[in-house]
Amino acid sequence: MTVLDRLRYDGKRALVVGGATGMGAAAARAATELGADVTVMDYAPVTLDVAQSLQVDLRDPASIDSAIGQLGGPVHAVFSAAGWPKARS
């Protein structure tokens, strides 16, 4: 068994918050490659090939509640990579 075998997420769901670009997108790709069913939540459009993508505005509690309600099951791993939201004008 290799180190990567020990890190596998087969049969697990991973949530990546802020996964549309940058480090979050890298985490989403890595978790997918390790067998996870990945859900990405982001304010920006998600173009990654993941199991589910949800738009969420972290400045809005109702948006967060709605996105969490759409997860559809347990989450086994969470990767938090959301950037600092810009102030509303």
In short:
With 89 residues, this protein is of the alpha/beta class. The protein has helices at 3-6, 22-33, 61-69, and strands spanning 13-17, 37-42, 52-55, 77-80.
Helix content: 25-40%
Count up the helices.
3
The CATH superfamily is: NAD(P)-binding Rossmann-like Domain
Distance between the termini: 53 Å
Number of domains in the coordinates?
A: 1
InterPro entries: NAD(P)-bd_dom_sf (IPR036291)
Protein name: Short chain dehydrogenase family protein
Structure description:
With 89 residues, the chain is an alpha/beta fold. It has one domain (3-80): Rossmann fold. Helices cover 28% and strands 21% of the residues. The protein contains three helices and four strands, in the order H-E-H-E-E-H-E. Strands 3-2-1-4 form a four-stranded parallel β-sheet, covered by helices on one side. The longest helix has 12 residues, at 22-33.
Characteristic terms for this protein:
single chain; 89 residues; alpha/beta; Rossmann fold; 4-stranded parallel beta sheet; 3 helices; 21% strand; globular; NAD(P)-bd_dom_sf; Short chain dehydrogenase family protein
